[in-house]
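S., here's the first fold you wanted:
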Amino acid sequence: MEALVCKKLGDPTALKSSISEADNDSPIILSKTQPIPQLTTPTSVRVRVKATSLNYANYLQILGKYQEKPPLPFIPGSDYSGIVDAVGPGVSLLKVGDRVCSFATLGSFAEFLVAEQDELFKVPDGCDLVAAGALPVAFGTSHVALVHRAQLTSGQVLLVLGAAGGVGLSAVQIGKVCGAVVIAVARGDEKVQFLKSLGVDHVVDSSKESVISSVKDFLKARKLKGVDVLYDPCWRQTY
């Protein structure tokens, strides 16, 4: 199968050369001879990958700066979506041909990937596999943070910084589903208008106005006591 393989640590963006196997300068190569992974347990599932997204963590792994350092060589990649290609004899939740998405520690930058059935999510009809391939890490991060850790409930006030990024957008949408009053912070008219189109209760353009003053004015106008949950995927000291 074809796969993108990291053969040595380094910055792939610093090189202008290709990622063909003949190129020994790039830390990543496009290999066409990787073995197709086999089912490892009775409940494992093999997925033919149709879409995968690039996360910053993948880039850090190739640089060798991520907290988890897999041995070389390795196949990077985390978010993915695809079609179930094979199932183990103990699989009861999925069947061959099902559309699924998930995330892995490694391995999604390849044609095939093996996962346990309980690690996979069915992709609903009408949801594009490309969109589904970018969903698990961002939405999974925000779901754990807001639903499990913060235990966000209806009527609470959620303030999202960096709300126009991938993780920020997922937090905004999860907040609305939870019934929270959502305040979003972003920079620029285009991002502000997009957030408003998602039904955000109040959007602050941090390039034009004070975040603190704008949030206080909104809370006062709505007779709200304050912010219950602050979600900051950026970790910035600007505010």
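And the second, which I think is the more interesting of the pair:
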Amino acid sequence: MNYIVFDLEWNQSPGGKKYSNSRLPFEIIEIGAVKMNEQREVVDVFQRLVKPQVYNWIHDSIHEVIHVDYKDLADGVPFQQAVREFLKWCGEEYVFCTWGNQDVMELQRNMKYYGMLSLLPGPVTYYDVQKIYGICHEEAGGRRSLEFAIDQMGIPKAQDFHRALTDARYTGDIFKTLEPAAVCVNSSIDVYQNPKNKKEEIFISYPTYDQYVSREFADKEKVMKDREVASTRCPVCHMPAKRRIRWFMNNSRAYESVSLCQKHGYIKGKVRIRHTDEDAYYAIKKLKRIEEKDAEEIREKRDSLRKKRQAKRQSEKLV
């Protein structure tokens, strides 16, 4: 199996959000990739400039970062051709690697726009090199820029950043340094092609937490009422944990809860509800062990939010 370490550059509406195409807010204008064998040695490279078909000029902020002129892109190939050539180059057995979690999703969104999503069945499993780098080098698993990681690892910066092939090469350089054991247990899954029914629902156990991705719901209000979505199982023994703090919505529009496993202590639950392009909804739930002090902080946050919302309702009644 090969590792396909790829990077995308994309453009957006030069006229701002008002003129953005809601089906394609980010249009891919460059694909760059390196192919690495199982020993993580580079065996081939891929690069294509993509001729824009949606946005006919480069957004000023994009131009400042990637230094590509529209006339250069005009000589590129259509996205349909570029992605077919890219997937053919990837071969039969491969796994994607990227710096961050956005490239895999944007690749699929661009493919969907052109009716090509069937060429890349999902959900797509990949390695988020940025996430794994954070796990290996920083206790909190923080997300750092690619340039920060390159500097920290003492890797020579032979070329400027923010071109697809160059960034793919640098990502590959970081990927080589990661411990194989840390890589294999920290894969990521992109759910742009989300589960549609109960049979397709996803359950994954990572070293520090469990993740669940639900089926689709037509009504957003029904998501948190679903038994599986609202359940809380210990990520260590996978037995039901007794709820100590019921699900509540926090400031970031996610739901949180705290439960207690008699063997393994406090469990934090977090649910984010996602909206699909087809106006359906699904949930992504994470269950993670926490300390008692963390549970108390969540309780205080819940109580504070509750008081603020009560005060807001009272003030609205007086108006």
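Why I say that: The domain at 2-184 is CATH 3.30.420.10 (Nucleotidyltransferase; domain 5). DSSP finds ten helices and twelve strands in the chain.

Talk tomorrow,
H.
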